[in-house]
Amino acid sequence: MTSLPPLHPVLIGRVALRNNLALAPMAGITNAAFRVLAAEGGAGLVVTEMVSAESLKYGNKKSFKMLELLPGEHPAAIQLFGADPASMALAAQAAERAGADIVDINAGCPVKKVLRSGAGAELMKKPQLLGEIISRMVKSVKVPVTVKFRVGLAAGENLGPLLARVAEEAGAAAITLHGRPAAQFHTGPVDLEAMAATAAAVKIPVFGNGGVENAAQAAVMLAAGCAGLAIGRAAVYNPAVFSEISAGLSGAGAGSVTDAARIRLFLRFLELNAGIYGEEQGLARARKLVGYWLKGLPNAAAARGAFMSLKTLKEAEGLLIQYTR
Questions:
Q1: pLDDT band at residue 151, thresholds of 50, 70 and 90?
Q2: Beta strands 15-17; 10-12: pairing state
């Protein structure tokens, strides 16, 4: 189906990934508990939620908490966002001290709050600044530095090759390329031609991102020249999607996870979350995700509503046990 074996090890700098499938960073979702599930589900690399370099600079406790990594999630990248080279270099050092195997730069987030700070996709307008940020970070840490950006800002635009060359020349060890322009956020088709041109422009690995949910879609993006894939939304309710895609690409069959198995995974996620934040806070932080996990199941709306008031793991198990049989 593809000339690139799904379990082919990939080198990012000196970091060897067991395969070329990564968990993409997602704000409010890819916390430590979720990253452990993704690693167990076959991801060769997991990436944290984006962390503000400026918040780290001023000692924000919540931001430092986001740097914490669990033993079961390595290799792991900590993703940082910011627009000041000095602050980003300091943040990279903090990420390295926290145990990051890789430090990643967010240069593709289209959210207005991030853009107003000059970070995220705003950096795509300023290749020279982006290059300076990458260079300063590379010189400040021993671990590899990578960067994520989009094919363009508006539909039909391809800034990928230019930005990729800037990143490579500044010392980036790999690139993650979202195949949609910033204006489209997470909807619409990906621009495979733009992705292919970007992958061909540099020698460092380019991981494709955007809309991949199964082996067939993965094969198409790999065939465009991507060295690997970063999968986000398809993993939200099924962290085992990485193993499913690997199996499908290798011809072993998709081996889709059953609904019962998915809910058991969700219960494990809740246990891990409780270990990090305490039971009540762990359940509260999971409310954003419960709708994804219950989607398509009988009486899902009622179960989701009931979940919103749960405070203990025992209560959660009592509610969800009906779906595990």
A1: very high
A2: antiparallel
